[in-house]
């Protein structure tokens, strides 16, 4: 099983960038895929998630309206289109997948992230740096 991110880079404030995450090695139809990020010295934080059928998406408040998550099931690829980038968006961006909250729930356990019951798989991350 593999999640392979690509598309990171160095951009200026206000620019756009598209990250890709290719998922392979298993069936993903009951899974959701999300993006998280970790800035230097910071904790990993949720950015966005999407169910494998593309019907349900979630965004963190700080990217709502600027970032768009989408999926191409024919390519097993999830995209994160980032627009209006800010220096505070600088971070390593990780792709992660887990059972979708549309299919799994537990009365005794909170989901790991909006749309994702728990994280089963992680990618290696891709660096995004936004200069001011």
Describe the structure.
The protein has 132 residues and is mostly beta strands. The chain has strands at residues 2-6, 9-12, 17-24, 31-38, 45-51, 57-59, 67-72, 77-82, 91-99, 121-122, 126-131. It has no helices and 11 strands. A hairpin with a 6-residue loop joins strand 4 (31-38) and strand 5. The mean pLDDT is 96.
Mean pLDDT rating = 96
Q: Give a short account of the largest sheet.
A: 7 strands, mixed
Given the C-alpha coordinates, what overall shape results?
globular
* Topology pattern, helix = H, strand = E: EEEEEEEEEEE
Q: What is the percentage of strand-forming residues?
A: over 45%
Structural class: mainly beta
The first-to-last residue Cα distance is 37 Å
> Compute the gyration radius: what is it?
14 Å
The total count of strands amounts to 11
Counting DSSP H or I runs of 4 or more residues, the number of helices is 0
